[in-house]
Structure formats: structure tokens, C-alpha cells
Amino acid sequence: MPVEIKIRKGETMDKAIRRLKKKLERESIIRDVRAKRYFEKPCEERRRKKKVQAFSNMLRQRYENM
Q: 5 with 23: CB under 8 angstroms?
């Protein structure tokens, strides 16, 4: 699914590029491309996901106690 932006009348290229970058960021396309750049072993992937989950749980508990 290609990402498109239409350049508005009188819009500079800089602003159009900024809008494109924001759209790519919102759809997490750049993050996915960077993650798939190199092969990640299944055990490394599980370890990474477990670490992210532990961090999320820690934050959730911290803010529940407030």
C-alpha cells in the first residue's frame, strides 16, 4: 500500500516532505522497515518483546499507584 500526499496549491516542498514524514511515522512504516532490515532470531525477538512487556507493566503499575 503506497503512501501518497498531494501537494497543495502554494505549498512549499519542505512542508510537503514534513507532511509525508509525519504520515509515515503515524503508520509506523519507517519503524517496520528498520526492524526488518536485519534478520532477528526467534529467541532474540521473544527476548525483545518480553523486555518491552516488562517495561510497559512497570509503567502501568507506577501510574496505578499515583
A: yes
